[in-house]
Structures are given as C-alpha cells and as structure tokens.
Write a structure and sequence with these properties.
2 copies of one chain form a homodimer.
Chain A: H1 8-29, H2 35-76, H3 83-119, H4 121-159, H5 166-213, H6 225-265, H7 278-299, H8 310-339, E1 343-348, E2 352-357, H9 358-383, H10 388-397, H11 401-414, H12 416-447, H13 450-472, H14 477-520, H15 530-571, H16 584-598, H17 600-619, H18 624-665, E3 667-669, E4 672-674, H19 679-720, E5 737-742, E6 748-758, E7 761-772, E8 775-785, H20 787-796
Antiparallel strand pairs in A: 1-2, 3-4, 5-6, 6-7, 7-8
Helix pairs in contact in A: 1-4, 1-7, 2-3, 2-6, 2-16, 3-4, 3-5, 3-6, 3-13, 3-14, 4-5, 4-6, 4-7, 4-13, 5-6, 5-15, 5-16, 5-19, 6-7, 6-12, 6-13, 6-14, 6-16, 6-19, 7-8, 7-12, 7-13, 8-9, 8-14, 9-12, 9-14, 10-11, 10-18, 10-19, 11-18, 11-19, 12-14, 13-14, 14-18, 14-19, ...
Pfam families (chains A, B): H_PPase (PF03030)
Protein name (chains A, B): Putative K(+)-stimulated pyrophosphate-energized sodium pump
Keywords (chains A, B): Cell membrane, Hydrolase, Ion transport, Magnesium, Membrane, Potassium, Sodium, Sodium transport, Translocase, Transmembrane, Transmembrane helix, Transport
C-alpha cells in the first residue's frame, strides 16, 4: 500500500478540486442582485476577461519563444531532455488556468457579496470567503495535481517507475523544473503586469476623478472606475494567486531535489517501503495533505452575529488559519516519522557527513511554520492601524508631506531588522536541523497552507469590489457598512498575506539556490573569488533597478489613463450629469495595453541577466564550473537584495496606506483631533501616493524576481555543471546502460557503463565518447575483478 | 639609495604639510573684512569650535573604552600585540587633528572669500580654493605621515628594520591596522554626527525661519542661521575630510597587507633593492607621490577673467583635477616598474599560482583611475542641473509632491545600474590583472589624488558660507553674485566628490575584505554554508536599518531645533525687528548635543554587530575558522548593500536638490515657464526635504559603515584565524625563534621553531605549547636531516 503513496497527492488534489467545484457552484447559485448591480459586475467581469485575453496573447508568444529556446538547448546539450519543453508549457498552462478560474470566480463573487450584504454580515462573509476558498483550492489543487502528475510521468519515463539511481532521479527532477519555470513565468506576467495595471488604473482614476473633478471614489461617472475595480482583481487576486502557485511548485520541487541528494549521501539508495524514494515523496505528500487541511480550515471560517465588527471577522479568519497551521504541524510529524528513514546521513559543507534523525527534519518543518507566522506578525506590526509605527507616521504628517515621507521610508527600512533576523535564524536553524533539505522542508511546511492563505487573501479584494458595486449601484448605507467591515479586515489580511508571500518566496529561493548548487556539482560559492564577488554586486543591484522600472511603469501608464479620463470628461456630453455614458472599455484597454507593454523591460532584465552571465563567459571559453559559481553569486545577490527591498517597499507602502486611513476615524495630533481634509491628511495622501506602487507593484514583484532568477539558474544548471561519476550508483543490480555526461571545460563527454557479473567476477564495460571542438573520440575499456576492485577502478577513471 | 625609499613618503608628506602651512599663512593674511562680517564669521568659527570640543569629549571617552578593550584583547590573545593600542590612539588623534585644522581654516577662509569677492571673482576663487587646498593637503599629509611613521616604527620594532619573513610582516601590519581603526572611528563621529548636525540645523532653520516666519535664508534674525552655517563646515568639510582620511589610510594599509601576501606567494622572500619589501612599500610610495602631485594640481586652479561664469570656474577645477590624475598614472607606471619585480607569482583562488608581470599591476592602477572618474561622471549625470533625469523629476513635480518623490526615488535607484556595473567591472578586471593586490592598488591609485579631491570638495562649503556671510552682513549684490557662482560650482563638485567618496569607500572595503581573508587564513567565504548565507542576509540588512536610524535622528534633532527657534522668536523682544539679539549659541548647542547623542545608536549597530557575530558563537564553542567565514559573509553583505544604498540615497538626494534648484532659473512644464513659488516648485521643495537627510546624512554614512565594518573584521582577524605554519619562511638564514600561534577550535597553540645548521645537517628544534581549557602542555621535538627533509617534517607536523 505504501508504494501507492506516490499517487496520494494526486488523489488529495482532486478531492480539493472537487470541493472547490462544489463551492464554486454554491457561490454561483447565490443571488447576483438587480439590474444596475449586475450591469456593473458584468463590466468588471468583462474588463477582467479583456485583460486576461490580452495577457494570454502575449503569454502565448512568450511561451512559444521560450519553448523553442528550451527545445534548441535540449537538442544541443545532452544533459537536458526535450520533455522539459512539455513540462514548461504545462506549467504555464496550469498556472494560467488557475489564475483564470480565480479571477472569474472573484469577479462573479463580488456582486453576490453585495447582494448577500443586503441580508446580513454573516452571509456576506460566507459568500465572499466562499469565493476566496474557490480561488485558494483551485490554485493549490492545480499546482499539486500538475506537479505530481508530471513527476509520476517522468518517474516512469526515465526510471521505469522504480528506483534506479540518483543520477536518473536528477534527470527526472531537472526535467520537472520546466513545470516550475512555466508556472513562474506566468507569475511574472500576472504579478508584475497586474501590479502595473492595478496602480495605473487606481492612480489614474483618483487623479482626475477625486482630485480634478471632485467626485467620490467608485463613482460610476468616472470612466476609469471599472478599470480600477478590475485592477483589484488583476493585481490582488490573479497576481497573488500566480505568485503563490509559483512558490508552491518551486518549493516542492526544490525539496524533492534535495531529498534526492539525501539518498545520494546515504550511498545512492535506501531501503524503504516507498520504493526507496521516501525523502523525494515527502514534500509532495505534505503539499497534498495541506490541501485537505486548508479545506478543513476554510470550513471553520464563519461568524454568527449580524452585529459583528472587524474583530470578530478577524477572529473567524484567525481560527481557520491557526487550526490549519496546527494540523500541518501534526501532519508533518506523522509523515516525517512514516516516510523518512529513522536516521539519515547528510553531507554538510565543510563538516562532512552527519547522522540526522528524522525528528530533526520534523524540527525544520516547525521552524518553517513559526517563521511564516512570525513574519506575518512583523508585517502586521509595522503596517497595522493603531500600531506605534503608524501613529508615528501620522504625527509626522503634521509637519508636511516631506516628514511624512521620511517617516514612512524609515518605517519600511527599520522593518527589515526583525524580518531579516528571523530569516537568518530560520536559515541557520533549519539548516542545523537537517541541512538544506531541512531548509526546503521548512519552506514546504510553510507553504502547505497556501490554499488557506489564498482564501484569506482573495476575500479582501472581493469585499473591496463588493463595496465598490454597492457604491456605484447606490445601495442602502448598511450594505456599504457591512462590506466596509469585510474590506477593512481584508486590508489587514492583505498586509499579512504579503508578509507570507515574501517569506515563502525567500525560503523558496533559498531551497532553489541549494538545489542549484547540488545540480551543478560545484564546491559551494566562494565570494572571495573576484568574479563571484562582482556578480554578487550585480545581483544586489538588479532588484533596485527592477523596482525603479516598475515604479516608472506605473507613472507612465497612469499618465495615459489621466489623459483618457480627461478626454472623456471633455468630449462625452452629459457625463458629469449622469446622462452620458462613460466608455469604461477604453480605460480598461489602456490599463491592459500599458501594463503589458511596461512589464517588458523589467521582465527582460529578470530573464536576461542570468542568461547573459551564463552564456557570455561561455562564448569566451570560461570554465563552466567557474561560470556556475558566478551565477550562484548573482543568485545570492538577487535574493539578499530582493528580500530586503520586498520587505522595505511592502511595509513602507502598507504603513503609508494605513497612516492615511487613520485620518478617517480621526487622529490626535498635538492634542487636537485631526480628520480627513486637514493639511496633515493631505500630507498623508501624498505619502500614500508614493506607497501605492511600492506595496502593489514594485514590492510584490520582488518575489517573482528572486524566484524566477533562481529557477532560471536551476534550469541552466545541467548545462553548466553536468553530472559527474559521483552520481552513479554502483549497486550490484546495476547492469543497464547509464549515460553520464560531463561538461567541464566546454568538453562534452558521454560515458556508458555496462556492469555485469560473470560467475564471481564483475565486469564493467566503459565506453567514453568525447566531443571536443566538433571532433568525436570514442574509447572503450573493460574492467574485471571483484566488485570492489571494479568500483575502485571506475572511481579512479 | 633605494633602501632609503621607505622614508620617502614621510619626506613627501612633510613637504606637503609645509606647503599647506605656507598656504595657510597666506590665507590668514588676507583681509577678513569689516566689523559685521567679522562678527558673523567669528560666530561660525566659535560654533564650529563648540561642536569640535563637544565631539572631542565624547571621542576621548570612546577612545579610552576602545583602547582598554584592545589592550585586554592584546594581553589575552597572543596573536595581538599591545602596540595596536598606541597605533589606535594615534590614528584617532591624527584624524581628529586633520579635521580640526581643516575646519578652522574653512571657517577662517569663508569671511576672507566674501571680502575677496568685493574686489574680483578670480581673487575670491583664489582665497576659497586656497582654504580648500589647506584642508586637502592637511588631511592627506597627516594621513601619510602618520601611517608611514608607524609602519617604520613597527618595522624596526618587530623586524629590526630588515626583512625576516612574511609572518613578522603580518604582525607589523596587523598592529598598524590599529592606526586605521582609530582614523575610521573618528570618521564615524565626524561623518555620521556631522551629517545629523548639518541637516538638523538646516531643516530647523528652514522650517521656522523660511516657512513659518517668512524670512529669507541666512537671515541674521534667525537664531538657527549660525548653526546652519556651522553645519556646512561640520558635515561637508570635517565629515568629508575624516571620511577620506579614513579611506586613504585603510586603502594603503590593505594594499600593504596584500603586498606582503605577494611576497609569501613568491616563496616567502624576494630579492629587490628595497630590502625585499618592494610590494609592501609601493602603496605608500604612490600615496606620498600623490601629495606632491595634488600640490601641483592645486596650483593650476585659477581663472583670470572677472566676468567668468560657472563654466570657466569649473574648467579651472577640472584642469587641476585631470592633470593630477594624468600625473598619477605616469607616476604609477614609473613606481610599479621600479619597485616591483618584473614578474611575480600570485595565488588565485581555485586557479593556483599565476605569473604576473609588473605591468599588469600598472594596468590595475589605471582601472582604479578610470573607475574613479567614471563613477564621478555617473553621479554628475544623475544629479546634474539640466541633465535628463533632473528634467524628468521637474516634469513630474507638476502633478504634485507624490510623483516628484517617486521620480526622485526611481532616479536614485536606477543610478545604481551603471555605478554597480562599473564596480563589478573594476573588481573583475583589476583582479584579473593582478589578483586582490591589483584591486587594492586600483584603490590606492584612485586615492592618490585625495588632497586634490578634498581641495575641490572643501571649496564648495567655504563659498556657500561666504555667500551666507555676504547675505547676513548685507553686502552689495555683486558680492553675493560672485560667491553664488562659486557656490553653484561647489554644488556640482559636492556631487562628484560624493561619487568619489563612495567609489573609494567601496574599493577600500574590498581591499580590506581581501586582507581579512588572508589574515584569517580561511579558504575563502562559501555562501553555500547556511550560517555564512544567514550572515550575508544580516549584513545586507544593516545598512538599511542604519540609514533609517540616521534619518530618524535628523528628524528628532530638527524638531528640537524647531522648538528652540520658536521659543526665541516668542520670548526675545524685538528679534524680528532686528533690535533684539538672537541666542545663536543655544541653537549651536542643541545641534551639537542632539547630533552626538543621536549617532550613538547607529554607531553601536556598526560596531556591535561584527563583535557579536565574532564573539557570541565563540562563547558557544563554535570553530574559529567557521566564525571567520561567517564574519566574512557579514562583511560582504554590508559592503554590497551599503554601496547600493549609498549610491541610491546620494543620487536621489542630489537629484531632488537640483530639481528644486532648477525652478530658480525657471523651467518649461507643459509648454509653460514655471518659477519659484509655483505649485510644482512646492512639490519639488517637498522632494528636497526628503532628499536632504538622504544626501547629507544617511547616504554618506554608508561609506563609514562599510569601511568600519571591514576594519573591525580586520582587527578581529588575528583572534579568529591566527597564523598557520604556512606563514613561516624556512629560509636557510632563518635561525631565530619564531612564534607561531594557531587558534583553531579555541585552543591556543604556540610553536617555537629554531632552525640551525650543524655542518651539512639542518636541525630544527620545535617547542609546541598548547593551552586548552587553562591547562598548559609543552612538547619539544627535534628534527634533523637535509634542509628539504626537515622542511617536509615541519610541514607534516
């Protein structure tokens, strides 16, 4: 039965997806309200579809280009298999599908939430969180389903469905990396493009609508208002979904790679009831179980009282969240104890092989769960309404926009202190527990509740939209009050969700980084070599420049939106009186086009730099392992700097936002109550303008940048490092032909070893094919003797 | 004659100091103007002295504490010599002396410049640049004099004035590191404290004076105006001086350390006409020659026409600068060819020993000169009036402070792109030319013109002050016009000077980093070890938090100033009518106290983190070499992140400043000329408020942070790494007793080796003293045989 465990994650994913489908049907069956509401909702739905369709066109071109590039590489480089192309396409497709489903349900749920808010707050929560649940389970279910299916397929294709050796498993996982690369590429479009979209629409709508024309937010007379509402879905729902889809897949993949290296460190094979691949299966099993746990968690989120306030709603969400995390901890204990050998050997750099008990791996998963929660709390502290940092920014607003900005920047910067110390402690302790396998499993445990996190996260923008629809369709004030309660809670969960997304991206990148080093077979990354140090500098710079490009992109796109809104106000007769109809679709089109155009340059930067670092020195004949080390330095630079700028920008942006919102209820400055419309409030609004691209565009983009950089590294790794004979498992049963290639010094070597036994004697036939500068040279050698003798010969070969 | 070259830098430094003294007398002989002017100038002079005196009190306490700590360490740890304490105290004293001289002459020159401006512009330039020259030559002369004298003293003390072996030279240089640490500690006070001072006074004076009371800048009725003018001297003159003093000393020291390792790689001794220490002497020789070259350069700076404009003044400065740089290039060629062996062996990490011709070392110095110039140009492009980035910020000001801020931030961020690529190229190419010795000599060559750079740099704030005095003493408009021309040029040179300071700090840190690795004897810094990676993260975070603390410090200090100015306006009768006299000294005292108090926390962060990383794991019994690697990871993190944040903050700040200044002459926005007082200008003023602490406090502080971090690492290095037997030079002449200690695994080992020859036989008596947990164990062994046999035995010991 245990050998069937490989199929369990698929089953669990399908259960999750079935539950999602039931929930989806339930949400769609809810009343979608009257004419005006429906009309607005349809506009938003169509706007969202318009963005998705435009995105898909661009995506299709991108996927074709990358597929061709991957195919060429896989034919030229013998260590890369062409199936990586298929994996890549499906990774992209699954991520896009998850985003599509999520966005559709979110834009269908919003109006139903407004309608439910007419009856009661518990109903409104039920509907909006139901929509979030569909999104969360859809993303997590598809991620696990896709990754597991491809793993099983490759496992059968390359290994015949049973353990052969770590080298073959490496090839399986290298090919599987294509799936992850596909998923993360979509995230680049969804998160960066979506981030530009949402802020361009928001800023454009506000600048002309609120400031110039003096009409309130979400006013239907504003032509950009639909684009603004679409933006919430594009950025916060689809963007966040694709981001976490990518993290989820990459984390599990990286943990599997490192699990394979645990097997290698244990002598190349282990004897367990899971066909000898327990350490590789474990991350998938945790991910699969996480879906069911998240499902249970979402069921716990409900309130009963119609008079509930933010606190009760928050508590309901927290109960669901904490129960899921506790269940993950228990599950990890059970799975680790069941699936891993009681003690393992792991190689620690510079410390040699250590004996690691499986309970230490469990310890690492607990670290992951704690750090995930702690980073969310830190984020909440630095960006939460009523917390000290926010109150300080509010005070500094009284002396003008300049001091408000300085205070916000300083808050974001100081927030890196506890966050980075937490990371450092997490890296160190999970590594001390169980090496880089421990780091990767810490990330896996943290990501296990992804579906729950996404449900909590997606319900925010749904409620925000619901409020917008209530406003635009001129509902009773009580409706808006109820949606506002949900929206306000949604703002808090958005902040903590961002903390979770950063933490997951950071741990994922570290796991990918570790997988990269093991794939290339380099002896670590020594920054005392000047080229490596130089690349560490370059890597550190890229997130800074990326952020600037993203911010400038928002500025440019917003300016186009401003021009269009001004034009409509000028040219459409009766628009301000409500008799002329604004051309919403024009604004949607501008946001769509501008965002996809403007994401090109930062996207090119992300993809171009690692490729340039890998291939330009290769052209100049540099040693491949030296290049691999340089690229590793670059990846480390991007990760360290990217995590810092992600925390800085997200928290500064969140802090400015809530400092501005503090004025709604009134704040005490120099002993005087100060409200909206005061000079201090105006200063706070300026701060929020700066914070908007920080928290919704450049900040969250950092997650994608660091993950995609490390993933590209991982995909390039086999080209740079190739495999060495160390990877081959000389077991007695090993009589097949094994292809071993070594690409050091730009020479292609192919070694075929056929080991057989003739009586007592072991016979190894070795055929070495060397391709250097286009010339092929073949040597055949035969070794005979006892098994030990032959193995020694092979080692010395 | 060549063996006397060791004294040449002292002679050159004394020539420079003599010329400085002549120039100083000339400046002081100039007319100091009439009563009112003299009175204001005296106020500024006294304010500056007040700050210096307060700073010295704090400094004295700091120096005593650090001295005691160093003394304790030097008695406990056998690898550290107590003379490091003396070197530390003198390093601090020399730096403080240089700052004192510079600040005094600057505050004396300002009023003389105003007076000279009454006659003609060429005279005004002559006087103000004369003051700058005194400052520049004083700093450079004292730096070279102090460092060289101490080197010669230690060279005689530890080595008897002639080459023994690389181990002894290592001890000489480790002790000399105390001088550099002392100098950099003063820089912490001068640059960080000074940075807080100058902005607190500036913001305080502006907020109440300009904004609330509506009186112009530099108005004598404003009680904070003297503090503001003192601040220019404290921050821009003394701060910059101490910063470059520290860089100068540290660069030369690091290059000497790496020169010693060149000798080690060449077998432990070389045969040259400089007593076998050519590679160690070279950096000092370049520094000494640089003083004379700078002297010549300053003589070339003059204009003849009284109708000259900014361009002509700029050209005069550029001629002086370029000629100096060209002369340094020629001098480097001559010195490298003369002082280095024609070919050297250098060990490259992972590549083994390489043959390096001395011309490749010359190549590295050229890299340094090019990069120094290129980074200054990049800085000028991103912050220069009329350049594209500034025009863009100006345009973005029309839509409000928010967009202005975003544009400024983005400009600073994007400016890291060319700067970091230049650095990366410099690291890589100078390393490719001549290993880390090449990197250090690139820095040395760049720093050779320090005196010239400082002269150009110091003349700016002198002219700024001169303008202030003209305003306060109500001179004819022509006087202010002339000083304004000088001031405007000074603003440009201030920006490029900051670029130079960052570039020098970055290269200095890299050289120190390399020296650190060689001192500890670790096998490089492998960031694939999780604790090292964790420290890379922590190191990356520290500059961000440091910057935030510095910014907050300015905010707090400025608020105190605001309260005081408000109080004086309220309580002193007739102050606004010019009949009541403002209490300037109170404001000066507030700036002084606040700045020195507020620099404590960032200072503690800077010093505390490396100490904690080194000593906390030591208490827990961690392997010393593992700690050394962790600390190296931390240093790399601080350097990479610090350089990024230095460039980002300096350039963003400079860009905002000049965007604001653009409005003085009027700018074209949307086809309309826009001037001071417009809404767009107000937005630009807000941007400048944010930029002020960026460019004058937190940005420049990064230089000190990264250098001091690496220097602390260097001073701790002998404690962590100790020396290994590799350092011992087994030459035939080597019959003395050599103390070798090894501190790995927290065990103190002392190995005495006495090598003698008895007839044909070589005899080595080895006495190994091991101290473990307080118990002492002594073993004595004797090896006999041929020299090769004995050496082999010793190696295997």
């Amino acid at each position: 039965m245990e050998s069937m465990i490989i199929y369990a994650p698929i089953v669990l994913a399908i259960i999750g997806l079935l539950y999602m489908w039931i929930k989806r049907s339930w949400v769609l069956k809810q009343d979608a309200g009257d004419g005006k509401m429906k009309e607005i909702s349809d506009h938003i739905y169509e706007g969202a579809l318009a963005f998705l369709n435009a995105e898909y066109k661009l995506l299709a071109i991108f996927v074709v280009i990358v597929s061709v590039a991957l195919a060429v590489v896989s034919f030229v480089v013998p260590t890369t298999h062409w199936l990586i192309v298929i994996a890549f396409i499906f990774g992209a497709f699954f991520s896009a599908l998850a985003g599509n489903m999520g966005m559709k349900i979110a834009t269908k749920t919003n109006v139903r939430t407004t309608q439910a808010a007419k009856t009661s707050l518990p109903n409104a929560l039920k509907v909006s969180f139901g929509g979030g649940t569909v999104m969360g389970l859809g993303v997590a279910g598809l991620a696990v389903l896709g990754l597991t299916s491809f793993f099983i397929f490759f496992f059968w294709y390359f290994m015949g469905g049973e353990w052969t050796n770590t080298l073959d498993m490496t090839i399986v996982l290298e090919t599987l990396a294509g799936f992850s690369l596909g998923a993360e590429s979509i995230a680049l479009f969804a998160r960066v493009g979506g981030g530009i979209y949402t802020k361009a629409a928001d800023v454009g709508a506000d600048l002309v609508g609120k400031v110039e024309a003096g009409i309130p937010e979400d006013d239907p007379r504003n032509p950009a208002t639909i684009a603004d509402n679409v933006g919430d879905n594009v950025g916060d729902v689809a963007g966040m979904g694709a981001d976490l889809f990518g993290s989820y897949v990459a984390t599990v993949l990286a943990a599997m790679v490192l699990g394979n290296y645990v097997i290698k460190d244990m002598g190349g094979s282990i004897d367990d009831v899971f066909g000898g691949i327990g350490p590789v299966l474990l991350p998938m099993a945790i991910a699969g179980a996480g879906i069911i746990i998240s499902m249970i968690g979402t069921m716990l989120v409900k309130i009963s009282s119609n008079d509930a306030k933010e606190d009760q709603v928050m508590r309901a969400l927290n109960i669901g969240n904490w129960v899921s995390i506790a269940l993950v901890a228990i599950t990890c204990y059970v799975l680790v104890k069941w699936m891993l050998p009681a003690t393992m050997q792991m190689e620690f750099f510079g410390e040699g092989i250590k004996e690691i008990s499986s309970m230490r791996v469990f310890g690492a998963t607990i670290i992951g769960l704690i750090v995930g929660g702690a980073i969310s709390s830190v984020t909440e502290y630095y960006t939460g309404l009523g917390k000290k940092p926010i109150l300080k920014i509010v005070q500094q607003s009284s002396t003008g926009a300049g001091t408000n900005i300085i205070a916000g920047l300083a808050t974001g910067m100081i927030s890196t202190f506890p966050s980075v110390l937490l990371f450092a402690a997490a890296i160190w302790s999970s590594y001390a527990f169980a090496g880089f396998y421990g780091v990767a499993l810490a990330a896996s445990a943290m990501m296990a509740t992804t579906a729950m996190q996404l449900a909590i996260d997606a319900f925010g923008p749904i409620s925000d939209n619901a409020g917008g629809i209530a406003e635009m369709s001129e509902q009773e004030p009580i409706v808006r009050e109820r949606t506002d309660i949900l929206d306000s809670v949604g703002n808090t969960t958005a902040a903590t969700g961002k903390g979770f997304a950063i933490a997951s991206a950071a741990l994922t990148s570290l796991a990918l980084f570790a997988a990269y080093v093991t794939f290339t077979g380099i002896e670590g990354i020594n920054i005392f070599k000047a080229p490596v140090l130089a690349m560490l500098f370059v890597g550190g710079m890229v997130p800074v420049v990326f952020s600037a490009l993203a911010m400038n992109a928002v500025g440019k796109a917003a300016m186009e939106m401003v021009q269009e809104v001004r034009r409509q106000f000028r040219e459409i007769p009766g628009i301000m009186e409500g008799t002329g109809k604004p051309q919403y679709d024009k604004c949607v089109a501008i946001s769509t086009e501008a965002s996809l155009r403007e994401m090109m340059l930062p996207g090119l930067l992300t993809i171009g730099f690692p490729l340039a670092i890998a291939f330009i020195p290769m052209i100049f004949g540099m040693n491949n392992l030296a290049i691999a080390e340089m690229l590793g330095g670059y990846m480390a630079g991007v990760t360290v700097s990217g995590v810092l700028w992600a925390i800085f920008q997200n928290n500064a942006g969140g802090a400015w936002d809530n400092a501005k919102k503090s004025f709604e209820a009134g704040v005490l400055i120099d002993g005087e109550m100060t409200y909206k419309g005061s000079d201090a409030h105006k200063a706070a609004v300026t701060g929020d303008t700066v914070g908007d691209p920080f928290k919704d565009t450049s900040g969250p983009s950092m997650n994608i940048l660091i993950k995609l950089t490390c993933l590209i590294g991982l995909v390039i790794a086999p080209i740079l490092g190739g495999h060495t004979l160390d990877d081959v498992n000389y077991s007695a049963e090993n009589t097949e032909i094994i292809n071993v290639t070594d690409l050091e010094n730009s020479v292609t070597k192919e070694v075929e070893i056929r080991m057989t036994t003739e009586g007592d004697e072991t016979v190894a036939e070795v055929r070495i094919t060397t391709i250097e500068n286009g010339k092929t040279d073949v040597k055949v050698k035969t070794y005979r003797g006892t098994k030990a003798e032959v193995e020694a010969e092979l080692e010395n070969m």
